Amino acid sequence: MTAPVTPVVVPGPAELAEAAASWTAQRITSAVGERGACYMALAGGETPRGCYERLAQPPYREALHWPSVFVYWSDERQVPLDDPGSNYAMARAALLDQVPIPPEQVFPLVGDPTPALRRVPSDAAGRPRFDVIHLGLGEDGHTASLFPGHPALREVRALIAAIHDAPKPPPERLTLTLPVINAARAVLFMVQGASKREALVRVLRRDPALPASRVQPLDGELHFIVDHAAAGQ
Prior knowledge:
Number of strands: 9
Order of helices and strands: EHEHHEEHHEEEHEHEH
Structural class: alpha/beta
Oligomer: single chain
Shape: globular
Low-confidence stretches: none
CATH topology: Rossmann fold
């Protein structure tokens, strides 16, 4: 059985954004220093937005080697890229338009993203090995667009799963599959708010009924940064 995970608990959203930005910056610096590039998959939602806005400010905006960062997404709603519900649109406004990442190194999760994913250095099994993957946690225990009981959870070969019946709108989504997520060097869950408390407790206990509990990098780090409300403090 997988061991429980101990989260880093911070007071509120501002502290969560700061802690997540610092964590991310350290791993970008390590990846660029050790391998010459950082391949990162971003998340959607309000909690990651705070992290991205913080990364777009000093000292990270100036200190990080953004031209060596390649940006992907852990999941995406299949809406126009300029739609307010687009994870790409959120990340572009919060971060990508503020830092010098070359546009050709940004890969929205639309259409057939498999060729773009094949540009990520692979592990021994041929899966993309991201340096950093950001994830959120839903009240139902979903993460990315992997929902409880969904057949996509059983996918073992495909890099991407197309979701046509997500229980949250919009129903059409694309998501990284669990084998890709679990091939990452480092995965960070950002969780805030009292509405996530029950799901967080179950995920930290590794309840297998919740998709987020099945995130466990095979040869990498798994971290949770959560606020007091989510932690029940």
